[in-house]
Design brief:
- GO terms for molecular function: single-stranded DNA binding.
- The chain is mainly β and 306 residues long.
- The chain has 6 helices and 16 strands.
- The chain has helices spanning 6-12, 67-71, 148-151, 211-214, 267-277, 281-286, and strands at 22-29, 33-34, 46-54, 57-64, 80-84, 87-90, 107-115, 123-127, 159-169, 173-176, 184-193, 201-206, 222-232, 242-246, 252-253, 289-290.
- The strands form 2 sheets. Strands 1, 2, 3, 4, 5, 6, 7 and 8 form an 8-stranded mixed sheet that branches. Strands 9-11-12-14-13 form a 5-stranded mixed β-barrel.
Length: 306
Amino acid sequence: SKVTSLGQLEMTWRSRLHFHPLLVRVLHKSRLRYYGKPEKKVDMPYQAYFEVADGSGMMSVVLWNSLCPEWYNSLKVGTVILLEQYGIKTSYPFKTQPTPGDSQLKRFATIEISLNVRDPPTKISIIPEEMVKPEWGLPDVKYRFITRSELDDLPNNHSCDVIGLVTFVGRAERSRKREHGEDFWLYRWAHAIDGTSDQPFILELFATSQPDVFEHIHPMTYLVCTQMRVVRDLTENPSNTIYLTTSNESQIFITGWHKGQPYTKDTKVKNFIQWTKTQNEADQMKKTIIGGYYPFPRPPNDFWKY
């Protein structure tokens, strides 16, 4: 059938009521957002957005309400989808932006694609990977993996992906989203090593929309975290604490979830797997820790500085 491109859509959307189908690949996926309020009568007040791309560039797609429970778990990073009967609106200006793995990819930021149950009722079709044709020109998913030895040179808020062998995982903790509010963020600390440094990655992992993964992070699992942000101590007396925290678009994968993921082709991931084959499992097991209270960043040694 006639398929349009994201580039054509951006140029012609104001002059059209109906749009041709879109054939795109999912490059990024946000966590699921619940926006329910007692006074608003919405059956399923959920929202999630995806960054999708074709040969012309990348654009945001917003999944609304009851389409979220139906489609959120099926639309994975790397999935190719055909979209029919979608809406177009101007972009929400305060949305977080993932850092694309391919810096050459053009970003269409003025509009976003809206997927709804009605007005118009969107039709989503997943194209199996073996049926995807090279002539469609869909970009591959690209990553920004770093090793632990490269981390110390990266600036605050830099976006990256990491893979490591988990040596410590803390208990789940909560922090208030707002002071005096009743909503909490759930998170846990983890350490992961990759053999390139004596120091581990220190990871602050917030519960994304993957509870089945978040609850099963154990020592000795291979952990992949995408779209992580570097956090540096920028105070006048830096304690040299540097760690990584999840962003709105982070995805977390553990042993058992890696098969078929696009990152398995990445060179740094392959190098990590080669390194793990040289390690003695029993030796590494002795160094692992689970649970307990983890005060981080650590307070200064001197009470006056504290």
